[in-house]
Design a protein that fits this description.
Blueprint: E1 6-7, H1 9-19, H2 36-46, E2 49-50, H3 63-69, H4 76-82, E3 86-91, E4 93-98, H5 106-111, H6 116-124, H7 126-139, H8 162-172, E5 176-180, E6 187-191, H9 198-202, H10 208-223, E7 225-227, H11 228-234, H12 239-251, E8 255-260, E9 267-270, E10 281-284, H13 295-302, E11 323-329, E12 331-341, E13 346-354, H14 360-377, E14 382-385, H15 392-399
Parallel strand pairs: 1-8, 13-14
Antiparallel strand pairs: 2-4, 3-4, 5-6, 7-9, 8-9, 10-11, 11-12, 12-13
Length: about 400
């Protein structure tokens, strides 16, 4: 079928949701077994999963699997890491990627993208950096605090010890790799060979342009329909430097220029994108889910104004600290601020807000089911809805 020259907003939403895997069966929600094969299917769709340390409800890298697969063994990411099938590196921030994608990031490792204070350790104390490298090779996996000379941590939230800076420098330039401790979430640093198979390390590494072209193609496939900003933000590529590569993908037929209702800038449909007739999704989304990374796109596609308020002073927050959008059908219909009260064995809904024009009873009934599913997966015994937000009372009744 020929690609359309224009898309309505409803069509564009369905394209985007299909590209992100929200039209596929959610096996865990149906009581089916979910295993590593299904994780790879999700990665085939989204290409990478963002990692973040915040654990007020659940680690952010766990939620994309729950959103697309439903309840599943919570150690699946660790199993895949132990089998040398995935690794962590900087892409869209800290991210989990497939090991076969290591060569795509060789250009980034050569440039060593990192904070200037991290880079400075290699200039100021090169002998110390080499000593840290040898210690990782000899003793890894180790955390920064396990180093024989970790150095003193400086005052301040973002300040790091020399040991941590050296480890992050070596990690950034690809001389070592790392994985997360299953309980503390701290990075444990290891020799590259511990996580990346020899065949991948010995294989060909594409040029910087070839690697970026492939990353842009993958970003387009993961979006379905996207602007230049969407394509470059997905793997955090420099937009002006990527424009000629986007043009080459258009020339090659991988990206198809398309008009989307109400959008005022060049937009592209991926050659493999499909326009499903309907989407019957139901999912809570992490604030760091790849569907909602690009906030302008979210607002234009779904009419959903979304901002993370984690770093906003409590008295200035509009919706809450850790707010998850609620996807129902092909719309974002509500948002809830969630917290896992592990001592009290309760999933707390600190606030619940309905989007304009949505049916509160319909949304509350579906959201109550989803919250019960999430609570059960997290090993919590009940859902408690606190009285904040215009959906709170209706949701509380539905949860009861």
């Amino acid at each position: 079928m020929a690609a359309p020259e224009s898309l309505s907003l409803a069509q564009a939403r369905r394209v985007a949701l299909a590209a992100q895997g929200f039209t596929e069966p959610r096996l865990g929600a149906r009581g089916r077994r979910v295993d590593r094969r299904h994780v790879h299917r999700v990665l085939d769709r989204v290409d990478l999963v963002q990692v973040d340390s915040i654990n007020v409800c659940v680690r952010t890298h766990e939620m994309p699997l729950f959103s697309r697969l439903g309840p599943h063994p919570r150690d699946l990411w660790h199993r895949l890491g132990a089998r040398r099938e995935v690794f962590e590196y900087w892409s869209h921030e800290a991210s989990i990627l497939r090991v076969e994608d290591w060569p795509l990031l060789a250009w980034s490792m050569e440039r060593g993208y990192m904070w200037s204070t991290t880079r400075a350790i290699a200039v100021d104390r090169p002998d110390y950096v080499e000593a840290v490298y040898r210690e990782v090779v000899d003793r890894g996996p180790i955390a920064a605090g396990d180093l024989s000379e970790p150095g003193r941590k400086r005052e301040g939230m973002w300040e790091r010890s020399d040991g941590k800076r050296a480890l992050e420098y070596l990690f950034g330039v690809g001389r070592i790799t790392a994985w997360r401790h299953p309980t503390t979430f701290a990075r444990l640093y290891e020799p590259i060979e511990a996580r990346i198979p020899a065949a991948v390390l010995a294989g060909p590494h594409p040029s910087e342009d070839d690697a970026k072209r492939e990353m842009l193609d993958r970003a387009a496939r993961a979006h379905g329909v996207a602007t230049e900003r969407c394509l470059t933000d997905y793997h955090r590529l420099n937009a002006p430097r990527a424009r000629h590569l986007i043009a080459e993908l258009v020339e090659a037929g991988r990206l198809i220029p398309v008009r989307v209702e109400g959008w005022d800038r060049p937009t592209y449909l991926h050659a493999e994108a499909r326009v499903p007739g309907r989407v019957a999704a139901r999912a809570l989304l992490s604030p760091f889910d790849s569907l909602v990374w690009e906030r302008r796109r979210v607002e234009e596609l779904f009419g959903f104004h979304y901002r993370i308020e984690i770093y906003v002073p409590p008295e200035q927050r509009v919706h809450g600290y850790y707010v998850m959008p609620f996807l129902l059908g092909d719309r974002l219909v509500a948002r809830v601020d969630l917290k896992a009260d592990r001592r009290g064995s309760a999933l707390l809904v600190r606030s619940a807000f309905l989007e304009a024009g949505e049916d509160p009873r319909r949304v509350a009934a579906a959201l109550a089911d989803e919250l019960a599913l999430l609570a059960g997966w997290l090993g919590l015994e009940r859902v408690v809805v606190e009285p904040r937000g215009d959906l709170a009372s209706t949701l509380a009744a539905a949860c009861r």
